[in-house]
Design brief:
alpha/beta, 17% strand, globular
Length: 333
Amino acid sequence: MERRRLGGSDLELSVIGLGTWVFGGRWGGADDEESLAACHAALDAGVNWIDTADIYGQGRAERIVGRALRERRDEVIVATKGGVAWEMGPELRIWREAGGDYLRMACDRSLRALGVDVIDLYQVHWPVAGADPADTIGALVDLRDQGKIRAIGVSNYAVADLEAARAVASLDSYQPGYHLFRRGIEAEELPWCAANGVGVIAYGPLAHGLLTGKMSEATTFATGDWRAQSELFTDEAYPERVAAARELEAVAREAGRAGGLAELAVAWVLRRPEITSAIIGARNPDQARRNAALAGRPLSADEEAAIEAVLARHPDASRPYGHGEPPDPTAAE
């Protein structure tokens, strides 16, 4: 599988990364052994990096990834995130927290959960209003200086947040949501990353299942699946997104893409030179293998033109629908 260098770091990432949000159990449930098997299947298929976060199952996903790392640490670049705090009790309480002391504690907790001496890429999960970038990013610099992390990244930041962070220290990576129906970062964030040598690792390239060709206007989601409340699947533009997906599936078929719409969607994300890798989640080894196979041939000019024509016919399909996926830290898993 093709690999690309992440920003100014020494990390070479496969163009597909394994996402582990589902391992935490908030996206329709999860089985730990199946999650572990998904890690091994992805690595066997050429994926060389895994993205996780402490909030995914409150350490559950990190512990599963740690089990995989014990057997093959030298093969895996591990990325995790801190910055969403939680409190266990009668009800789980979750909030964003990006203070330096909190991030130092969270990093140590992630090191223990993953069972490693150093985290290859450590990222601030969300911007926090009122947090001092000197404190937030300064903590990551301290962690790097102490040898606890190798590279520094941020996730879900806007350009103003990126500028404030870079005023403290150079960033190696930026992790935004990006897919055919979510293009907001093309206007400012991607050009900023290109100008500042920051690698981009995009999550949600399949629009959380919408760009697999398996959904219709009648699709419903299980209890506990955050998509049941997401604007992407519930606002008045959803039928138009489904219609656009059907037309895009025809584009993929005419282009002879064995992976269908999903492969076309991933190739579209990877067409941008700013993008280092696309993160795709898997709940079992079969999904992990299928996802790895989506690293197909580059998007052609004809395919890109056909895609733009579809989106032009369905302008509401890619209109803005919220900052994050999910847009609320109480559902940040």
